[in-house]
Design a protein that fits this description.
This protein has 116 residues and is α/β, with parallel strands linked by helices. It contains four helices and five strands. The chain is globular.
Length: 116
């Protein structure tokens, strides 16, 4: 299954809904290019809804770290929401749960953003 991406805005937040597999190659390039374009247009606060991401490899994980680092240096942030258990286990094994802000759903991520 290819990666499909949809975007929408909620106030200052850009929500990206991802579905499919986030793996080396085209899917990583799609997400990287989308975030790069949105950040160039002034986007700084991103919520990545991963409810539909069924699988992610090390390239997908590396891409998320790159996005996080880039946005952080530009004064922005990225929150991850609705991560499937299989993918969440990867975050736990690599201790990236200590790096990323991870929320159970979009409402909690957006509420946390409004409190900052």
């Amino acid at each position: 299954m290819n990666l499909t991406l949809a975007t929408r805005k909620d106030g200052d937040h850009i929500i990206i809904e991802a579905s499919g597999r986030l793996v080396a190659g085209e899917s990583c390039a799609q997400l990287r290019d989308l975030v790069k374009r949105l950040a160039a247009d002034g986007g700084r606060s991103f919520v990545l809804n991963m409810a539909g991401v069924s699988y992610m490899d090390s390239s997908g994980l590396g891409l998320l770290l790159s996005i996080y680092s880039t946005l952080l240096h530009q004064g922005g942030n990225v929150k991850l929401v609705s991560i499937a258990d299989r993918v969440k286990d990867l975050f736990k094994m690599t201790k990236l749960t200590e790096v990323f802000q991870i929320y159970e759903d979009e409402n909690r991520a957006l509420a946390a953003g409004h409190q900052q």
